[in-house]
Each structure stands twice: as structure tokens, then as C-alpha cells.
Specification:
Shape: globular
Largest sheet: 12 strands, mixed
Helix content: 25-40%
Number of helices: 25
Oligomer: single chain
Number of strands: 29
Strand order of the largest sheet: 2-1-3-4-7-5-6-8-9-10-12-11
Strand content: 15-25%
Length: 733
């Protein structure tokens, strides 16, 4: 991302008359200060150690900023004493420095100086004993060590914990302050090398905070160093620089007020929208933390109350009845937040949809939810989408054994389950757009933790764990996850790839097939080109590689060596839980016996018998899938040529009011087992002439063993495709 280190000062204020000394990586700020009237001097540690520099600039600077300077000094006290000479009596020094026992290093992040894991945790003892002849080019320190250096130089200090890093700060928390909200909900960990990470950092940081240990294991520190006792009145800073210049804010919490400040000029108009949104919500009877716009800031009173997110999550663990009562009220607030455009299959459509109206952005006080930070408003937005996001945020990272009300119950309670995939999709699209996931894809892929790699790393540590366990879990859970808006590469051009294409070619954006066999390069499978794995090199678009091979382990390791971040494993024999079927939205008629029904056939010479079958099937299910066999299938399995071509038969079925979805039947995967493997229907409907057929009875037994069913319908005896074809052959039609 752009503007590395910029976040550390983006929230601070400087007098135009101030003189600023920039040291180390703080030189990155030079352009920032050129837009002000401040006098700025950039210098290296070596330069300020020169007598001529000290004589010229003694007692000259109001502020000195040094980032990652102490780490490279053999004697940090010496440098601090020199900086003290250069500052005015009321001057301040701000230091940005890594913490060698920070959370990210505990989780497996590599040390910036040794490029190895855990070296800082043992104070570099292992590294130095392994490489006695190699001197460290630098080293990180703990909070206690830094305090010792500063006290020795005569500085009073106030430490601010920085998460996740100096380069990409998202949270800056004063050492005497414990956040009232969940820390994990406000930041995304970033790493130099995420492939070495062992734990989910954001899931453990709140435990450290509750045990008063967060400020000892912060990933980095922003240190305010002064010669008197007049520190800034700042408790916490929340930064959103990852959202681009239009949506970048710094939110500064002080003792009596909270300032939400625009970081870039482009965000000024969005600040005005925030003011309008808060006022509109207030008029709708929604309690809000109202403030006043002052220049490029929105000033709000400090609210000393429990966060709505924390309150509801506590109820989720302790009081099911009260939790449901509060969630019913929360849903009511969402519905009341705006005028209603209409009500349709998606539920109530709000004229103004405040997509951030979730518990995380509220306080709970005296039985009321009080909302803040409602920056975003989308016109004609479903209330259910906001409610769905609120529920997801509440259940995030809460162990299932601690939950009194299952999440599935919440989906059913509010009628969300039938379009759950849609709510999830539009929420993802909003968040990915806000965080510029596509524009910054290269950065995110290089620095964000991959969950499956993390699990793999943890299992490798334990020699008693069967090494198959990781692959087994990965195989069963990775294939259809996170395919939204991604190009799909398949790896392996064999039988499993053939089946994947037969099943899903029309469902996903499959770019090409990768294979290590050079003889296959330049050929095609189901019309998809087969190319070398080297084709991935330089690929900039968001993509995922799905391995379609029985012997997938060496391919998995090959892709990891190629630094491929998103990998799935497809098992042609495994029954995935239906997540690949994304577009099923039932009619909502819950009085019917089955939810999803399936019926397959040739449907040649469409007639009243077909209509009767489809009508009777639809009477028993909410959503009916009609599968049409291809021309090739008819030739191979029925030894005849269809009179009506496949494409036309499909269009005829699409026009039938009893059919909700029309699909093609893969030629080589046309059986009941394969159909159930993809669609997970609740019942298959079939003609009664097969009711006593041994093969069909086996299929019925199979479906019933998987919680599905097979129902036989009698045909319309006076009319059939065979009779019509016979009349055509005789020239009677």
C-alpha cells in the first residue's frame, strides 16, 4: 500500500510555526509537511551525531520524529541524549519502534533483522549462538527496555500500543487505556511473511487486553517523549487508511470528546454525508451520538457506556431469552431507520440503507442502542442484508460450545436462510469495495494471513498429529470457499478435472487448466485450454487454483512454492455440503413436503405428459430443478436422434411455469448419485415404469440413506414421446 508509516502521524496536529526534525524512516513524512508552513529538517542518525550539526541546531526543534532508529543503534542512550540537545525545552520526541515480544512475533512472524522466527522472543540468544561470527545489523526491544533507555536520557514517556504494525497502523492505544470494544473487530493483522504464522492473532489479542497484558505484547509502540509532564490527551486512535483517500479517517478518543478527522481532502464530502446520515437517523427516532462538524473533523461527546457488540455477545453466552429480546428490538431499529420503498421477496427495502448499523457501531445504555459512525448509506437497500451482517458480526470468533442460541436459529427466526448466500454476497461486495481488495490485491495476498496455511503450520509442530489430518480437512473444506469475483484455474487435466468441468463449468469463471504434462499444453478439455503452471507467473487478477487430481499433495506443495495464496482441493468422490449450489431461492411455501425437487429427462416433443409430471412434482416441492439430457446422451444411451435439439428443449422447459431452474445433464455423469452430489435435492421424481426396476430401487435406497427421497409418478398413458415419434415415422403427423 501507499504511504507507509504515514498513519502514525496522520491524526496528529502541528503548528504551522513548528520546526520538525525527521529521523530514520520518518523521512517518508517530508512530503506531508511540505503542505504546511512547518520548518522541516531531514537527517540521519550519523548526521545528528556530528558536532557541527549539534552546534547549528541546538535547542532548535519543537518536535523530533524517529521511526526505527533505536533498533540500529549500538548505544541507544547516546542517540537519545543527542536528540535531547536538539529539542527546545518544551519540545517533544515521537518514536516508532517494533516490540520484539509483540503478538505477531509470538504468532510466528519473522524478525525484521534475522529473517527468522522467534529470535526476538529469546533476546536473539539462539541466533547469536548459531552464528557466532555474524553481527546483528539491528535488533528490536521490549517496552521495559525502551523505558530504561528513555529514563537514562532524561525523558518522561507515554507509550501507545500500535496494531498491527508501524507500516500499516490501524489501532494506536494509550498504555493507560483499555478499549471498551472488541479489538479483534477493528483490525486486520498484516505480516512480512504470512506463510510462517501459527495463530490467529486477532483472536487472542482481546484475551491479552482482558488480562491487562496487551500493552506489553503490542506489535509496536508509538512513544511520546517529553522533558516535562504535559502529555497529549489521547486514549485511542482508530485509522482507516486502507479505504482509500475518500474514506480515510482517523478517529481520536480523548477524555471528553471523540474527533473523527478526514485524513485527505478528498474525504471532505464524505464527512458531510456522515453528518447528514446521523441527523436523518435522529429524525427517524434512532438514538445516535450526535456531534458537530468543525472544519475537517466531526466532534462528538465521549460516551462512557458498554458497546452494543460487547453487551449482545455477553447475552449470547449467558441469557438466551434476553438475547433474543434485544435482537428483536435491534431488528426493529434497522427497519425503523428509514422510509420503506417496498416489500418483496427480499423483505423490506429501505430508502436509505445504513449498512454500518450493526452492534459494533453502537453503545448500549439504559435499555437503548445508541449508534455512531454511520458513514455509509446505500439507496434502496434490503433491511435483511443489514440484519444478516449484524448477526454475522455477533457470532464471529465465539466458540460454538459457549453459544446459547445457534446462528442457524437466527437465520430461521428472521426468515434469512432462503437468501443467505445473496446477503453474504452483497455484504462481501460492500466490504471488499470499501477496503479496495481488488485494487490492493497484490498487497493483501502478500501480507494477510491465510487460514489454511496457518492450520498447516500448527499441525507440523506436533509430530504426534497424523500428517494426513490437515490435507483431509483442507480437501473437504477448501474447494468451494471464497470463489466470489475470482478467476478459477484448475490444476490437473485428468478424470477429476473432467468431472469438475462437467459439473461446474457454467457456474464459475474457469480461466484455464494447468498441468505438468507438457504433451497436453495447447490442447483443450471441454473447451477449456490446458497450459503450463508457469502461466500463473505475473497473474495480477484475483484468482484461485483448484487442484483436480487424486494425488494432490505434491501439487499443493508445488503451488505453495509458487507463492499461490488461494488453493482449493477437489475430490471427485466427496459429497460437498451443497455450498456450490449458489442460486437456489425457494418460493417460500413451507407447506410443501420437499424444499428442492429434481427431475431429469429428454423432454423431446414436449407434450401433456411432461406437463403433468412437472406439475405434480412442483406440487410437492418449493423449488423444482428440471435436468435435460444432451443430444449426445440420447444418441449414446437411447440409440436414436432427438427430434428437438438440446438448446430448444432447454428453452421449452424454461418457459414452463412449474420449473424454477433448467440445467443440462453431463453425458458421463448423468446418474442419480452424480445429480445428488451437485444439487443436494430433497427428492427426485421419476416415472412409474421404473418403480420396480432393481437399479432404480438401489438409487432410492442411496438417496434415503443421505436424507433424500425418490418418488415415482405414473405417466399419462394416452400420450408419450414414443407414440408421437412413431406417428411421425409413419408419416401420420
Amino acid at each position: 500500500m501507499e504511504n507507509l508509516y504515514f498513519g502514525l502521524i496522520s491524526w496528529m496536529s502541528f503548528d504551522d510555526s513548528a520546526s520538525i526534525l525527521l529521523l530514520g524512516n520518518a523521512k517518508e513524512y517530508n512530503d506531508y509537511f511540505t503542505n504546511m508552513k512547518c520548518r522541516v529538517c531531514c537527517a540521519s542518525s550519523d548526521e545528528i551525531c556530528m558536532d557541527t550539526f549539534q552546534k547549528e541546531y541546538a535547542s532548535s526543534f519543537d518536535c523530533a520524529i524517529g521511526i526505527e532508529i533505536l533498533e540500529k543503534e549500538a548505544v541507544p542512550n547516546k542517540l537519545l541524549n543527542i536528540i535531547k540537545i536538539l529539542l527546545k525545552q518544551q519540545g517533544k520526541l515521537f518514536l516508532g519502534t517494533d516490540n520484539r515480544i509483540g503478538l505477531r512475533y509470538l504468532c510466528g512472524e519473522v524478525d525484521p533483522f534475522t529473517q527468522r522466527c522467534f529470535d526476538g522472543l529469546d533476546n536473539y540468544a539462539t541466533y547469536l549462538s548459531d552464528k557466532r561470527k555474524t553481527q546483528l545489523s539491528g535488533r528490536c526491544y521490549t517496552k521495559a527496555e525502551l523505558k530504561h533507555f528513555l529514563m537514562g536520557a532524561g525523558f518522561n514517556s507515554k507509550f501507545y500500543s500500535v496494531l498491527p504494525s508501524l507500516e500499516t497502523p490501524q489501532l494506536i492505544i494509550a498504555e493507560d487505556y483499555t478499549p471498551a470494544e472488541r479489538i479483534a473487530a477493528r483490525y486486520m493483522p498484516m505480516y512480512r511473511n504470512p506463510d510462517t504464522v501459527l495463530f490467529c492473532e486477532e483472536q487472542i489479542c482481546d484475551d491479552f487486553a482482558r488480562n491487562n497484558a496487551l500493552h506489553s505484547v503490542a506489535n509496536a509502540f508509538w512513544v511520546e517523549c517529553i522533558l516535562d509532564d504535559c502529555f497529549m490527551d489521547v486514549k485511542q486512535v482508530t485509522l482507516s487508511l486502507d479505504r482509500g483517500e475518500e474514506n480515510a479517517y482517523s478517529t481520536v478518543i480523548r477524555s471528553k470528546e471523540v474527533e473523527k478527522k478526514v485524513v485527505f481532502e478528498k474525504g471532505r464530502s464524505n464527512l458531510e454525508k456522515l453528518v447528514q446520515n446521523m441527523q436523518r437517523l435522529q429524525k427517524q427516532g434512532i438514538s445516535t451520538v450526535l456531534g458537530k462538524q468543525k472544519g475537517e473533523s466531526y466532534i462528538m461527546p465521549y460516551v462512557n457506556a458498554m458497546h452494543g457488540d460487547v453487551y449482545l455477545r455477553n447475552l449470547l453466552r449467558t441469557d438466551a431469552d434476553e438475547f433474543l429480546k434485544c435482537m428483536d428490538y435491534f431488528r426493529e431499529l434497522i427497519i425503523r431507520s428509514s422510509e420503506h420503498v417496498c416489500e418483496n421477496e427480499q423483505g423490506i427495502i429501505l430508502k436509505n440503507g445504513y449498512v454500518d448499523m450493526i452492534p459494533l457501531n453502537s453503545f448500549y445504555q439504559n435499555g437503548e442502542f445508541i449508534f455512531f459512525d454511520q458513514e455509509f448509506c446505500i439507496q434502496d437497500y434490503p433491511a435483511n442484508a443489514i440484519l444478516c451482517r449484524a448477526i454475522v458480526s455477533l457470532y464471529e470468533q465465539v466458540p460454538k460450545n459457549e453459544i446459547l442460541v445457534p446462528r442457524d436459529y437466527m437465520w430461521e427466526r428472521y426468515g434469512l436462510i432462503k437468501q443467505l448466500n445473496y446477503w453474504d454476497k452483497i455484504t462481501r461486495e460492500f466490504m471488499n469495495g470499501l477496503r479496495r481488495r481488488e485494487k490492493e490485491r497484490t498487497f493483501y495476498d502478500a501480507h494477510m494471513r491465510n487460514e489454511w496455511v496457518t492450520n498447516y503450520n500448527r499441525q507440523r509442530l506436533d509430530d504426534t498429529v497424523n500428517k494426513m489430518d490437515f490435507y483431509e480437512e483442507y480437501r473437504r473444506n477448501s474447494c468451494f470457499e471464497d470463489l466470489y469475483d475470482k478467476k478459477i484455474f484448475l490444476f490437473g487435466a485428468g478424470k477429476w478435472c473432467d468431472k469438475f468441468l462437467a459439473f461446474y463449468k457454467s457456474d464459475y469463471n474457469i480461466c484455464c487448466i494447468l498441468d505438468n504434462d507438457e504433451s497436453k499444453w495447447g490442447t483443450e478439455l471441454h473447451g477449456v485450454p490446458i497450459v503450463s503452471p508457469d502461466s500463473l507467473v505475473g497473474e495480477k487478477a484475483a484468482y484461485k487454483v483448484i487442484i483436480c487430481a487424486k494425488n494432490y499433495k505434491p501439487i499443493f506443495r508445488q503451488l505453495k512454492r509458487m507463492n499461490v495464496m488461494h488453493i482449493g482441493i477437489y475430490d471427485a468422490n466427496y459429497f460437498y455440503p451443497g455450498r456450490q449450489m449458489l442460486n437456489i431461492v425457494s418460493s417460500g411455501d413451507t407447506n410443501k413436503k420437499y424444499r428442492i425437487g429434481y427431475l431429469s429427462g429428454t423432454f423431446d416433443l414436449f407434450h401433456i405428459g411432461h406437463i403433468n409430471m412437472l406439475r405434480r412434482a412442483k406440487e410437492q416441492c418449493e423449488y423444482l430443478i428440471a435436468a435435460v439430457t444432451s443430444d449426445e446422451y440420447v444418441r449414446i444411451h437411447k440409440d436414436k436422434e432427438p427430434i428437438i435439439p438440446f438448446e430448444e428443449r432447454v428453452e421449452v422447459l424454461k418457459a414452463c411455469k412449474y420449473v424454477d431452474e433448467v440445467v443440462g445433464v453431463p453425458v458421463n455423469y448423468a446418474g442419480t448419485v452424480e445429480a445428488f452430489q451437485k444439487y443436494h435435492f430433497d427428492c427426485q421424481f421419476c416415472g412409474s415404469d421404473y418403480a420396480n426396476d432393481a437399479w432404480w430401487l438401489q438409487q432410492k435406497k442411496f438417496l434415503q440413506s443421505h436424507g433424500s427421497d425418490l418418488v415415482f409418478f405414473s405417466y399419462t398413458e394416452q400420450t408419450s414421446s414414443t407414440k408421437i415419434r412413431s406417428l411421425i415415422d409413419k408419416g401420420l403427423l
